[in-house]
Amino acid sequence: MIFGRSERGKPPVEPVTLKILVAGGFGVGKTTLVGAVSEIRPLRTEELLTEAGRPVDDTSGVEAKSTTTVAMDFGRITLREDLVLYLFGTPGQERFWFMWDELSEGALGAVVLADTRRLEDCFAAVDYFERRAIPFVVGVNCFEGSARYPEDAVRRALDLDDDVPLVLTDARDRESVKEVLVGVVQHAMTQAVRRRSAVTT
Q1: Can you give 106-130 as a three-state secondary structure string?
Q2: 187 and 135 in contact (C-beta within 8 Å)?
Q3: Radius of gyration of the chain from Cα atoms?
Q4: What distance in Å separates the CA atoms of residue 15 and residue 184, rounded to the nearest whole number?
């Protein structure tokens, strides 16, 4: 096999499949990210926001949002012939957090999407992955009209460890999202090598 392709006359390579979570606060762009990059029609479990949910669904900064994910989003992207990522977008509201343990089972790593207008909304996701030692990358979703801050300022605000990658992204743009996902895979591999080295020394 050369560069992920089967040599002529040989059967196609069975791809390695990896599970990536996409997490973050309510209305941060998780569903948009999965939809932008998925090569299949994404599975979405969205419901309309209702008056009954208004007291618990804070739409400050995302007033135009009319739906919310109540279970998960699911998509798939082939990075190479021999490497396929399955994407699972988590629900953002606190009342659906009980599903995170199920969704995170077997995950290689995660993207924590952040919105600088509502940074505090991603604290729970950062804390969740830190406590479970699941490698993650923080993707600052660059919304139109949102303020841009230096990377070190965002790092301090989120109290991130130095080895956690932080990148600017646009959840609507396929190429931008692909770069973030590649970053998650690379970061997870680096963390795995470090853990193995720590065990053998």
Answers
A1: CCCEEEEEECHHHHHHHHHHHHHHH
A2: yes
A3: 18
A4: 18
Q: Long-range contacts made by residues 190-199, C-beta under 8 angstroms, separation at least 24?
A: 191/135
Length of the chain: 201
pLDDT tens-digit profile, the chain (201 residues)? 444 455 566 677 788 999 999 999 888 999 999 999 999 988 765 555 444 444 444 545 545 444 554 457 899 999 888 999 999 998 866 666 677 888 899 999 999 999 998 899 999 999 999 999 999 999 999 987 777 889 999 999 999 999 999 999 999 999 999 999 999 999 999 999 998 888 876
Q: Which amino acid is at 124?
A: A
The torsion angles phi and psi of 197, rounded to 5 degrees, stand at -65, -40
Q: How far apart are the first and last CA of the chain?
A: 33
